[in-house]
Amino acid sequence: MNLVLLALGVGLLLLAAGLEWRRAPWRQRLSRLNATARLDPSHLFQHQGQWQHWLQARGLWPTAFVWQHQRTVLVISQLSLAALMLLVNMLWPSLTTIYLLLSWLCAAVILLVAQLLWSHRQWLQQCEQQLPQALEQLSRATAAGLGLQQALSQIGEELPAPLADEFGWLLQRLRIGDPIEQVLEQAGERLPLRSYRFFCLALLLNIETGGRLSQVLASQSQQLKARQRAQQKLQTLTSEPRMAANVVALIPLLMFVALFWLSPSHVAFLLHDSSGQSMLGYAVASVLLGLAVIRLLLLRAAR
């Protein structure tokens, strides 16, 4: 059993080394693709399939932020997986090798997906925090007499990542000559934020009906800033209940681990008896359901 676990750990390390070794060819391929795109811009978007659009529309497509942190994702997943498998081996030492390997594989997939989704959520939050400042700068640029492409170019140079990448993509598509309606629709799919989609819709309406774009952008920027201030106030007011809920949820787990470590006979009924396993499953499901209800209430209050 120890040899199998050691071999699996070495395999994961080799996988990490292989991913790191493949980064150089991937960068060379991207460089060649960018060079080709400068000569013929149509090559830049020809490999984007329907399934990528479907994932982007639902906010599940891994972004550049995720790929830039791929080593962090891999290291955190491996450490978490090792700790989880150590706990499984302590709780159920009688498990056979095949069940342990299957549980290891399932845990690895779950941890990787969870880490990717968390990274994508962090990326979306950074974009949402930077959007009011970007709209304010864009409003000033258009009020000074700059065109839309010139204003986007100026904003893309001044803004930090990751929102600057999205404005750069928008500017690049407009310079290629794609219809602005199609570009703005795809921009809303790439960055699935309600405020960003409203910004794209405001641009479309301004192009169709006319008017002062700077005033529209300034008004939207002020609304987004007011919304962010309200969300920060809500986070401050609910920080204590959220912390209390997390502590209450962790107490049973810590007590279970402590009892298993100090006196395994006290928790043997929960692990090896069918009635005890049902009780343990009910307790875990109740805690998870309570945390889910608290989170739903907080999300509803934030809207």
From TrEMBL:
**Which Gene3D superfamilies does this UniProt record tie to the protein?**
Type II secretion system (T2SS), domain F (1.20.81.30)
Highest taxon of source: Bacteria
Domain named Type II secretion system protein GspF: residues: 135-259
Alphabetized, the UniProt keywords read: Cell membrane, Membrane, Transmembrane, Transmembrane helix
| Residues passing through the membrane, by range | 74-92, 98-118, 243-263, 279-298
Topological relation to the membrane, as annotated: Multi-pass membrane protein
One GO cellular component term of this record is: plasma membrane
Q: Where is this protein found? A: Cell membrane
Q: Which InterPro entries match?
A: T2SS_GspF_dom (IPR018076), T2SS_GspF_sf (IPR042094)
List the lineage, top down: Bacteria, Pseudomonadati, Pseudomonadota, Gammaproteobacteria, Oceanospirillales
Where mainly located?
A: membrane
Give the protein name, as stated in the record: Type II secretion system protein GspF domain-containing protein
